[in-house]
Design a protein that fits this description.
elongated; 5-stranded mixed sheet; 5 strands
């Protein structure tokens, strides 16, 4: 049955307009994005199949273009639309970090990092450079590596901090394995970076590890 044949109060778009986006399930939200289904399947049916195939929204967002386009009913146009939506969300969160105090909006920091790092197939090390009001000056991908390792050089990080005239910095990297737990090497690296940056009066406020749909905070664990 097509969605247009459903009772109005059950249609995703009408539900969103009446009750807000938070009232919709993942499949209903995705159905609004898809707009139409295919022969024998409503947009909601197709959305459920996509979520099942890619193991949820996180997997769908991280899907490779080739694999995504092999899905019945999908194609390059839908893939481009999805990537555009994700990039707009990432940029909106980046704007929020540049306007407000990042220490007063930890959820925004987490959301930004999860959106940017969760789907990476290799390790990426990111620095969020902050001014004296803890507003983001710049966000840079400083280093990238392999599936399990990234080489990070404190001297290069110090150079970037001085380039941006940063007062503080937040680090983040992803674990493609999906386990957002710090290794001993992660802890040693964080302390090395903290000591190197202290020499130029730049504070390390936090270090996040992104994986498995979460972002673990060193500061919250008492590791900074």
């Amino acid at each position: 049955m097509a969605i247009t044949d459903w009772p109005k109060f059950e249609r995703p778009r009408e539900k969103l307009l009446k009750n807000g986006a938070i009232s919709l399930s993942d499949a209903e939200l995705l159905a609004i994005f898809l707009r139409t289904g295919m022969a024998g399947k409503s947009a909601v049916d197709l959305a459920r199949e996509l979520l099942k195939r890619f193991d949820g929204l996180t997997g769908l967002f991280a899907a490779d273009q080739g694999i995504f386009c092999q899905t019945p009913g999908m194609g390059p146009a839908k893939y481009a639309q999805l990537q555009a939506v994700l990039e707009m969300a990432r940029r909106a969160l980046e704007e929020e970090l540049k306007i407000g105090d990042t220490m007063n909006s930890p959820k925004s920091v987490r959301d930004y990092l999860r959106l940017g790092l969760q789907g990476k197939k290799y390790e990426v090390f990111v620095g969020i450079f902050l001014d004296s009001q803890n507003r983001a000056i710049a966000i840079e991908e400083l280093f990238n590596g392999t599936l399990t390792h990234t080489s990070v050089y404190p001297r290069e990080v110090v150079k970037r901090a001085l380039h941006h005239n940063a007062a503080a910095i937040i680090f983040a990297h992803n674990h493609p394995s999906g386990v957002a737990e710090p290794s001993q090497a992660d802890e040693v690296l964080t302390q090395s970076l903290k000591q190197a940056l202290a020499l130029v009066d730049v504070k390390v406020l936090d270090h996040f590890i992104v994986g498995g749909g979460t972002a673990m905070s060193f500061a919250e664990r008492g590791l900074i």
